[in-house]
Amino acid sequence: MQKIPFVDLRQQYESIKTDIDNVMASVMLDTAFVGGSNNKYVTQFESQFADYLGVKQVVSCANGTDSIEILLEAMGVKAGDEVIVPALSWISTSEAVGRIGATPVFVDVCEDTLLIDTGKIEQKITSKTKVIIPVHLYGNAVDMETIMRIAKASGLKVIEDCAQSHGARYNGKLVGTFGDAASFSFYPGKNLGAYGDAGCITTDFSELANKCRMIANHGQIKKHDHVMEGRNSRMDGLHGAVLSVKLKRLDEWNTKRQNNAAYYDLILPAEKFRKPTINKGASHVYHLYVIRTEKRDDLKDYLGKKGIETAVHYPTALPFLKAYSHYGYKPYDFPVAYAETQKVLSIPMFPELTREQMDSVVTAIISFK
Ligand SMILES: *Cc1c(COP(=O)(O)O)cnc(C)c1O
């Protein structure tokens, strides 16, 4: 029995091995290990990613979670403030809010896309609300025009969480270019991934970018000139170098993901399994291909026994995590997120996935009773 992995980063590495090995050797020969304004591998990636997105500023940092936290701090969000986040995401989105002492205010998701329900945002805005963080979950794109209209009307800032959506578009425009700023993760398994933890902030506002850069590097403007207490959240030279090599392939890999998703869409029986819904106006880059079924846990076990690796994103919606039990949320507070997290199952999805592998995945799914 041929095992089918959920993602296959080894195969990806083998396809770009020469370029990666060469560039990693250069980093070592240059001893360009730690990030910062004098690391040419990191600054080169920053300017390449800025060109790719068409934004003025890219500020690299140690991981995607830090990028949200640093942005919130740079925007002046503090204890007592509220930040609007979707009820369904990876914990980083709300965790970053909590870590700076502010309160995450959750909004339920849409039943079809599982993205933040833009129709339920305004009722959560109070005099304490400072920021909205829409998450382009699974590689799908949130309706950013509605988000920006709501934010503008209430004087709120917007941070797009693009950790799962490098290269996705809304109405033809790349995500990460709508809000005041955006946060990206380059965790290895993301559509654009480093070989370890890495992340970045993107924005058109140079003052905001400079503040983020300072916070991420011990509050320094230049070496030993600490104008404030910051932190250590830099991107390593090795990651900058790897990301430059991989950025050139991002669009090609996303197209392969989209082709794979189209094939799954074609061969999965619609009457038994709910397939992903592309948000209206979005081009989806399928970081994850998430189906829904009532018998999720049994199906997951069944596929696992057949050597097919799957995952659940996510088993518990954010408001119902133990970390947030002090808020005392009930299922009826976020009925969609609560119900759908019982059904979601992410099946293998990566650019190099073959039709034969997808056939095997779907044959196994169909044989499940
Ligand atoms: C991965 C992820 C992050 C955080 O990224 P890290 O680099 O792992 O810290 C944030 N938000 C979402 C939605 C993610 O999937």
What string, H for helix and E for strand, traces the elements in order?
A: HHHEHEHEEHEEEEEHHHEEHHEH
Quaternary structure type: single chain
Structural class: alpha/beta
Low-confidence stretches: none
Q: In percent, how helical is the residue content?
A: 25-40%
N/C terminus separation:
20 Å
Strand order of the largest sheet: 1-9-8-5-4-2-3
Strand content: 5-15%
Ions and ligands:
pyridoxal-5'-phosphate
Radius of gyration of CA atoms, rounded to a whole number: 21 Å
Largest sheet: 7 strands, mixed
Indicate the mean pLDDT: 97
How many helical stretches?
A: 12
Shape: globular
Number of strands: 12
Would you give an account of this structure?
The mean pLDDT is 97. Helix content is 36%, strand content 13%. It has helices at 9-15, 17-29, 40-53, 64-74, 92-99, 144-154, 206-216, 237-247, 250-267, 296-305, 335-340, 355-367, and strands at residues 57-61, 82-86, 103-107, 129-132, 157-161, 169-170, 173-174, 181-185, 199-203, 282-283, 289-292, 344-347. The strands form three sheets. A seven-stranded mixed sheet has the order 1-9-8-5-4-2-3, with helices on both faces. A three-stranded antiparallel sheet has the order 7-6-10, with no helix packed on it. The chain has a two-stranded antiparallel ribbon with strand order 11-12. The protein is built from twelve helices and twelve strands. The chain has 369 residues and is of the alpha/beta class. Helix 2 (17-29) runs antiparallel to helix 8, helix 4 (64-74) packs across helix 7 and helix 9 packs parallel to helix 12. It binds pyridoxal-5'-phosphate (PLP). Pyridoxal-5'-phosphate binds next to helix 4 and helix 5.
